[in-house]
Specification:
This protein has 21 helices and two strands. It is mainly α and about 575 residues long.
């Protein structure tokens, strides 16, 4: 028998490895659909019966926007890090500082998925291992309390009996403190979440090929049950069509009373559109691995297109089923809003007993781990490529023998341990982090949707493996301003300080970039940064788009400020 010889070229030391095709990227991006579980209760709590329409509109926008990202990703077969890296190059001609802003905002938008996902997964584990007993007014314990405490109300008795029976680990904390609008806590949720994060790190350490293999298995275990949960209630007739009416927003957040289509109502709806974007747009991470594709010319478009189709299905089907079965009151229940009771709701939808519930809890934890692995894979590569291209500190450009950007991964890990302590404190802190990170995501999307037409003007002669129809590029640019309005109007719905905290976090890139560019690199970009475009740094002085990019930035800022001023609760 003749021996088989590997004829593929060896990968250069210190670089990512070309080991996957579009299917590998699809499975790595399969962690995006479970993101619907992060905010399904929160969006229902702000928009009420309009929630399903928000998910449909947001997912449709995300799918249309992805075609711009698919085109610009094809321009850079040798870069990793996602659309933010590809779009940043378009802005580089017009400002040294706008380009790294795109990369930075994409990273701090994606990275908190690790901490937020781990906090929810830890809550599931605590609920399974140390459940809080449920009492009613007819429980013997309540009757005993009322007999021993003459004059106490049933409400007081329920609270006291529940507190006494709650396992100590549920209230234990090593240390906690308040930090302005949020708090932080080193409690059981934090330590369990930290262990889950380290498990994810260990899987990622083997490189993208190993990550894709693990995520294919986990992805199937998660996506198939999500589809079943979405379809079974429809087949069994559990959908109550009255739960979609009246089609008006809430009068006030997290209160079931219907409101009206006034300024306050529109503000709540725009708040829903703002936070939904964090989940529904996220499948653009499928083009984060261009330099790891075996054939980037064909794999890039397929990866984002098929990932988008999967998300289109699940981001519409799951909210439709939840709202149709649970109704507004069910969606506003605290366990749904904070995510800890989603598995119970899923078990009820498929008519399962204790065993089915236990299996669904395990699947929910797997779903969250899937999202966490997707986030670490994408965000670490954004840091890596930002370092290679001269926007972030040099130490982030290191990769190990498996082609994994380990120093970027360690940076992700340490940052998210800090964020995890905040997310573990309470629901207010959780949604504050979500809103702040989404401000970065909206800024990234605004810059990159406009980079599509800037690349067309400045780099129009460069061959594109896949070219989007011009009307889709134009529509994506218009959606950029819609996203800016969502941020200006909607961030305040989740926290009064969220918009300003998000803008301050975005501005933190300025000293980081200045250190890299002016201190480490002496004011020059690496020569290889523009290799994919066939350009040299001297070519950056040619600005064919003229003042249009500057007017675009000014208009975007004005939309954010006007929306923030006009839309109030």
């Amino acid at each position: 028998m003749s021996s088989l010889v590997d004829t593929s070229p060896a990968e250069p030391a210190g670089q990512l490895h070309r080991t996957i095709d579009w299917r590998g990227a699809f499975w790595v991006a399969s962690g995006v659909p479970p993101l619907v579980l992060f905010s399904i209760g929160g969006i229902a709590g702000t928009a009420g019966n309009v929630a399903l329409a928000i998910w449909i509109a947001s997912m449709t926008m995300g799918f249309i926007q992805s075609f711009t990202y698919a085109e610009i990703a094809g321009l850079f077969p040798n870069k990793s890090g996602g659309a933010s890296v590809y779009g940043a190059t378009a802005w580089l001609r017009y400002s040294k500082f706008v380009a790294p802003l795109s990369v930075w905002c994409n990273w701090f938008a994606w990275s908190p998925v690790l901490s937020l996902g781990c906090s929810i997964a830890a809550a599931y584990i605590l609920n399974a291992l140390t459940p809080v007993p449920i009492f009613t007014a007819a429980s013997p314990e309540v009757a005993q309390y009322l007999a021993a405490n003459v004059g106490a109300s049933a409400t007081d008795a329920l609270a006291a009996v529940t507190a006494a029976a709650t396992p100590a680990i549920r209230t234990w904390t090593l240390y906690s403190h308040n930090l302005g609008p949020v708090g932080f806590s080193l409690n059981a949720t934090f330590f369990i979440g930290a262990v889950l994060m380290l498990i994810t790190f260990a899987i990622q350490h083997r490189g993208i090929l190993g990550t894709a293999a693990v995520q294919k298995v986990v992805g199937l275990l998660v996506i198939v049950p999500l589809l079943i949960v979405g379809v079974v209630p429809i087949i069994t007739g559990q959908i109550n069509w009255a739960n979609y009416a009246p089609f008006v927003p809430l009068a006030a957040p997290y209160a079931p009373a219907p409101g009206a289509w006034n300024i306050g109502g529109w503000t709540l709806v725009l708040g829903g559109m703002f936070i939904a974007a964090w989940s529904t747009y996220a499948f653009e991470t499928a083009v984060c691995y261009t330099s790891e594709f075996k054939n980037p010319a064909t794999d890039t478009f397929k990866a984002i297109f098929y990932s988008g189709l999967l998300c289109m299905l699940l981001f519409v089907l799951v909210p439709f089923t939840f709202q149709g079965v649970l109704g507004l009151n069910g969606m506003l229940a605290t366990p749904i809003v904070d995510g800890s009771g989603v598995a119970d709701a899923l078990a009820g939808m498929v008519g399962g007993g204790g065993l089915v519930k236990t299996l669904l809890v395990m699947l929910m934890i797997l779903a969250l781990l899937l999202a966490i692995m997707t986030a670490m894979a994408g965000s670490s590569r954004t840091l890596y490529q930002g370092s290679v291209d001269g926007w972030l500190p040099r130490y982030l450009s290191h990769v190990n023998e498996h082609g994994a950007p380990t120093r970027a991964m360690w940076t992700d890990l340490i940052f998210n341990l800090i964020v995890l302590a905040i997310a573990s404190a309470d629901a207010t802190s959780f949604f504050f982090i979500l809103a702040v990170s989404n401000c970065g995501y909206i800024i990234f999307n605004f810059l990159n949707l406009n980079s599509g037409w800037i690349h067309r003007i400045d780099n129009g002669a460069i061959k594109r493996p896949w070219r989007a129809p011009t009307w889709l590029i134009t529509l994506g640019a218009l959606f950029a301003y819609c996203n800016a309005a969502f941020m200006g109007a909607g961030a305040k719905v989740w926290n009064p300080m969220a918009l300003w905290a998000g803008l301050i976090t975005a501005a933190l890139i300025l000293p980081v970039f200045c250190f890299r560019h002016y201190v480490q690199d002496g004011g020059k970009f690496p020569e290889h940064m523009l290799d994919d475009l066939g350009m040299t740094p001297s070519d950056l002085s040619v600005r064919k788009a003229g003042i249009l990019p500057y007017l675009t930035l000014l208009a975007g800022i004005m939309v954010v400020l006007l929306a923030n001023w006009f839309f109030v609760l």
